[in-house]
Design goal:
The structure holds three protein chains of three kinds. Chain A is α/β, with parallel strands linked by helices. Chain A has twelve helices and 15 strands. Chain A has two domains: 207 residues, 3-Layer(aba) Sandwich (Rossmann fold), CATH 3.40.50; 109 residues, Rossmann fold (3-Layer(aba) Sandwich), CATH 3.40.50. In chain A, the strands form three sheets. In chain A, strands 3-2-4-5-7-6-13 form a seven-stranded mixed β-sheet, with helices on both faces. In chain A, strands 10-12-11-14-15 form a five-stranded mixed β-sheet, with helices on both faces. In chain A, strand 6, helix 6 and strand 7 form a beta-alpha-beta unit. Chain A is globular. A six-stranded mixed β-sheet of chain B has the order 2-3-1-4-5-6, sandwiched between helices. In chain B, helix 5 packs antiparallel against helix 6. Chain C has one domain: 3-Layer(aba) Sandwich (Rossmann fold), CATH 3.40.50.970. Chain C is 36% helix and 18% strand. Chain C is built from nine helices and seven strands; from the N terminus they run αββαβααβααβαβααβ. Classes of the chains: A alpha/beta, B alpha/beta, C alpha/beta. At the A-C interface, helix 3, helix 4 and strand 9 of A face strand 1, strand 2, helix 2 and helix 4 of C. Strand 9 of chain A pairs parallel with strand 2 of chain C.
Chain lengths: 351, 177, 248
Amino acid sequence: MAKKFLMKGNEALAEAAMRNGCRFFFGYPITPQTELAAYMAKKMPKIGGTFLQAESEVAAINMVYGAAGAGARVMTSSSSPGISLKSEGISYIAAADLPCVIVNIVRGGPGLGGIQAAQSDYFQATKGGGHGDYRLLVYAPASIQELVDLTAKAFEKADEYRNPAMIMGDGMLGQMMEPVEFSEPIDLSSLPEKEWATTGTEMKRKKNIINSLYLSPEELEYLNIKRYEKYAVIKEKEPMYEEVYTEDAELIVTAYGTVSRVALSAINILREEGYKVGLIRPITLWPFPEKIFDERSKTAKKFLSVELSMGQMVEDVERCTKGRSEVHFFGRSGGMVPGKEDIVEEIKRIY
Amino acid sequence: MYELIIAGFGGQGVLFSGKVIAHAGMDIGKNVSWLPSYGPEMRGGTANCQIIISDEPIGSPIVTRPDILIVMNKPSLDKFEDSVKPGGTIIVDSIYIEDKVKRDDVNVVYIPAKQIAADNGDDRLGNMVMTGKLIEIMKEIPLKDIEQSMRDNISKSKADLADFNIKMLESGYNFKG
Amino acid sequence: MEVLFERPHSLSNVVNSYCPGCTHGIIHRLVAEVIDEMGIEGETIGIAPVGCSVTAYNFFEFDIQQAAHGRAPAVATGIKRVHPDKFVFTYQGDGDLAAIGTAEIVHAAARSENITVIFVNNAIYGMTGGQMAPTSLVGQVTQTTPYGRKVENQGYPLRVCELLSTVEGAAYIERVSVDSVQNIKKAKAAIRKAFECQKNKKGFSLVEVLSTCPTNWGKEPDEALEWLRENMMPHYPLGVYCDYTDKD
């Protein structure tokens, strides 16, 4: 068995990134993700990597753009207000088809908001954030081990699809410690060549251009269609979710990230009391695991979306259950987290 | 399953105590989680961490009904007293907190941890006295594993305090109130 | 047959998109000539941010990244950190560099990023049709200062070379002009020196090139050059503002 470490989510994520070939990190301080940058600052120089504290989130994401376009595995991390600032750059990165990993350790909003755990950036992550027709791969881990495993996947899929990937956690996941195992560091030379990157032509090939500007509408539409063909493949192949007790469930709770653990604790209590309650936990928020909602809505009478927001993912649950089931919402916001007792009570109320 | 809360002022070492317990739990093969309070409240206000030690996979890492509560200042007692499970235990540092626990459905241990640590030469190590008492009450993790965890987690700059920390753990473990 | 004059290899064989009389073409050519002469075309990565020169990826023959408005120094930083031995330069206008991208240029200089910046100052926003730039002169009429730039309302024009030369990380900063053959020769020498500065790993270099915008200034090309000499040069004196290229 691999050695277990007791680590904070923020630090475990940084360690996992480096083990998966990330050698460039550009960031800007913001609570509650600061330990991630601090860990990078300490460890990157020791493995010949670059940690750079930028002058702003805006600069940091554009450094990511440059480094990604130059062919590197690169990452940035921030928390909600910082992700808003990065959103312009994320749109450019998506438009230039550049692979990179963006971490959002979400805090309560809007505005400067607070610093406690929240999930109120779901819309921003899955339905835009920046301008234009684009999508991010969005991974929502619920434990530190899953955070580590999904970090590896995020880098791999970003490269595979030439698409930015986001890891969306929250302050709780970033700050808490759990036992975690790591895989061995990958061999950087084993990664596929990025033939499209701007590395200098060496006079051996035609010039490479990293670009998001297309003044001809015909050309821009064509490229958007091509990109949506890629998204269609991702929607087919990449959705991830976990199901618990859904086979016979009359009511299915749906929740992601840390709050899904609170929900599962509530469900376990209710199962002992004889309630037929189950859980669907989306692991990818985009692509949203649409098919399982479609399937389960044929048997479950009710769905309850439990979120640390005023109700965002619930709109996707409504969309994917196609009016077959009643869809309810229960959430806390601003950094408040419901206890399992609160969820138990709400389920009993609507059951 | 044990659910614990350790609370006090920032700087009293409550987060470190929690980490030592969680790490020891991991070392003996339990599932563990450690969740801290964070942000500006850590600066001179109240700091706390919530630890779960379990044979089963851990659902919510949030502790709302602790089995054992350590409090090292008055605001922490006020904040968490009502949350302790009936039949659970509250360990109070009686030097920092002059008030008595109001509830009569929980066990209470008053321990002059700050004084015990001061008598041994460093009043900052009251957290280890309190941790020792918690370990004795919980009976889930052997003292030797806590001591090893403390050695594994103490920062290099404080490594010379390791033996002293262990002495304080043992003082708390053997304290009879 | 002896070739006496030809298109630099680093310039693509295409018609550029610049207006008649615009000096961007001259500056592109100077950059391309320097890159050719140094034999570094295969090792060069350029960055063209938003502005008239945003489509420069069509005009240069080496690898190039288009960048968001003002962010070219950040993008250059990302590229240079990945490829520290390659030549990385940005080609930025005055709105890009001295308004929306002020933070990025100052901090790239402060970090002494080993990159070269070609800063084209024509005292106006060209691409969007002639609005006031941070370098527009007091009294200058533009689309957004129809009564002339007034200090009470729009403040003073920024002198970028003077400002950046106070930053410790700046290794070489010079202001040149392309209004005459003599000045064009000096401009080329300055661009060459900036790339040599990068080659020798001396840190941040910037060449500001006073340039014209006949279209948005509403002048004939020769009048525009005259306007540059009479109005811009007094406010933006030519010369070397800092040069630490001989230092270790």
